[in-house]
Amino acid sequence: MTRGKQKIEAQKRNAEKNQKSKGSQLEARAVALKSSCPICKVQLANSKQLVDHYASKHPKDKVPSDLEL
């Protein structure tokens, strides 16, 4: 068991360590979203979702051949 200054320093180290592990998921989201719809600019995770997006949101338009699976 620690006392005094050691205890305070240990609490500070633990607080910094725990704070770094928590973070915004915006960076991870930006990395994961790789493809986007050229019509409405919505970002999607993969080309399969893009094909599904075209089927539901842009049924009159065909999926560009370079974006298909």
From TrEMBL:
Gene3D superfamilies: At2g23090-like (4.10.1050.10). Residues 37-58 form the C2H2-type domain. It is found in: Cytoplasm; Nucleus. Residues 1-25 are annotated as: Disordered. InterPro entries: MBS1/2-like (IPR045230), SERF-like_N (IPR007513), ZNF706/At2g23090_sf (IPR026939), Znf_C2H2_type (IPR013087). Keywords: Cytoplasm, Nucleus. It holds the Pfam family SERF-like_N. Residues 1-19 have a biased composition (Basic and acidic residues). One of its GO terms (cellular component) is cytoplasm. This is C2H2-type domain-containing protein. It comes from Dendrobium nobile (Orchid).
